[in-house]
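OP here, attaching both records as promised.
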Amino acid sequence: MPQRKPLTDAGGEVRELTAADLKATRRISALPKALQKKLHGVRRRGPQKTPTKELISIRLSRDVLAGFRAGGPGWQGRIEAALKRSLARTRHPR
């Protein structure tokens, strides 16, 4: 069997996974066996019927991001609220 390439390089960056990598994976769980059994029959949430938000990628400076994250959980919602306030202040009548 040929030896597989490491998943990360010397800098810790993860390389793109190949079909062979995915085929060699095994399903694992960090949950205790008793909890796995308890959760086995639990229904999972399905896809959202009417998505209200769009997934995007945005680059923010580290200090801005650190400031929002310092407020604890909900930092992404606080960023959205700040953007909405800014938009409301700068919106021009048509």
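Record two, same layout:
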Amino acid sequence: MSKNIEKQKKTKIDTTTLQYVLDIMEKNLLNELLYEDGNFKIQLKKAIPQQAIVTVPQIIHNPPVATISNPTVNSMQTPVAEPTPKIKEDENTYVVKSPMVGTFYRAPAPDAPPFINIGDAVEPGKTLCIIEAMKIMNEIKSEVKGKIKEILVENAQAVEYNQPIIIIERG
């Protein structure tokens, strides 16, 4: 019986300490936290839900095209849309793409300085930005060493899955 009492004492959790650890995790936007105090140890991890990719059919609206009549030439004039520039990744350039649909944030809080600016040097593992999806803040980290060449989206802008968001010049 004494073993059962000892086991119960070891497994009893101080709710004040647990709440303190949870508050630290929430305030610092952490997904994982390990708290140790003497023989007491708590490891917490947030469950990150699977991101559902929803495709919405696009309705293409073709506005009426103006016809210009000329006694010598009859032709349909159609405006030519300029193609959007393609962002190419090569051996000198790394394009960071959004891993999910969400909202792009340059800083951890509205009053905090941005994680990166154009011209900043980055190493693998350096936080570049946050993408909020379903009220969960997901840190996007650099996978390469280099220098920030371009930030393609504005702060608090919605981003799509696989959308280019940052260009890093490798180096």
